[in-house]
Amino acid sequence: MEIQRINLLGVNHKSCPVELREKLAVPTADIAGALRRLVSLGAREAVIVSTCNRVEIYWADDGCSGLREHILEDWRLKAAHDLSGHFYHHENLAAVEHLFRVSAGLDSMILGEPQILGQVRWAYQSSFEAKTTGRLLNPLFQSAIAAGKEARSLTGLAGGITSVSSAAVVLAEKIFGELSACRVMVLGAGKMAGAAARHFVSKKVESILVANRTSAKAEELARELGGQALLWEAVIERMEDVDVALCSTASADIILSESQVRALMKRRRGRPLFLIDIAVPRDVEPSAGRVPQVYLYDIDDLNAIVATYGKAKAEAARKAETFVAGKAVKFWSGRTLAPASVERVGGPLPVLLPSNARLSHA
């Protein structure tokens, strides 16, 4: 029997607070194992999209697997919390429409932010390599990625503040005003940390320090930015001298505790410290924000900036909504099942897509 049902079960920044999302996040190293478990529980195909703002599981089945209940029970145990009212479940066209909106940046904390398109592409690539995509999810994700890219270029949705990183800089400007006299420390050397560091450098900050547990990555990013790399062990000591510390590591544990921050602020003799924690799971213990002269903002706090700048994108968002809705409906109504296996992602694929769909070669 042909599999015709596509499911989506997810949580995002709108439905679920960061303290629960961080418990449900799937680390990069665990993605392949999580996909295999989904297949063992009844999914015929599966893709996991796990970012700082969302955890979404897409799967295809015959409607009899009971996988939704398995996933919800697993999430309940991980979160140690009743998730009623925090998750959403869509099927078939509704699931397709949601993915197309996600790829276009219409479901992001910051409308049109560019990172989500790359994250969806990476999630699909990882699932393809794990051999958990096939006749339904291959053409679905290829079409969603193509539509997301096209929506940005046609509607102007990608203009203005388009990422958590750029929003973090705007927040810093609201607190300090001119940033040219600010000394900045970036903890982490991954994509989000690098993007944030580049935004700060564009504001011609006085200095920028980069620290990462893998020193080679810190040195590479510091060279690119014209900054200085730090040994991880020197972070707390050098934090005495900075104005802004942006945390975006992949650590599963807190790296800056309240007690460390209290001791640090005593040595700083009352000088204020701005901490931006855009990591999920969080890098900074939330109670550190209660320390006098410490201004701590996590990724959910950036919603205020999004609201401020969201009006400027309203018209572009309306156009993009109409565009991707049409693409999603055309995909679903004209879908053609793809072969169960394809050559590779990102190049010429022997996949039978609907006539309206285009492959992304980015």
Strand content: 5-15%
Low-confidence blocks of residues: 338-362
Order of helices and strands: EHHEEHEHHHHEHEHEHEHEEHH
Morphology call: globular
Q: How many E strands?
A: 10
N-to-C CA distance: 35 Å
- List the quaternary state of the chains: single chain
Strand order of the largest sheet: 7-6-5-8-9-10
Please describe the biggest sheet, giving its number of strands, its sense, and whether it closes into a barrel.
6 strands, parallel
Question: What does this protein look like?
Answer:
- By secondary structure, the protein is α/β, with parallel strands linked by helices.
- It is 43% helix and 15% strand.
- It has 13 helices and ten strands.
- The strands form two sheets. Strands 7-6-5-8-9-10 form a six-stranded parallel beta sheet, with helices on one face. A four-stranded antiparallel beta sheet has the order 2-3-1-4, with helices on both faces.
- α4 crosses α6, α5 (115-129) runs antiparallel to α6 (137-155) and α6 (137-155) runs antiparallel to α13 (314-334).
- It is globular and about 65 Å long.
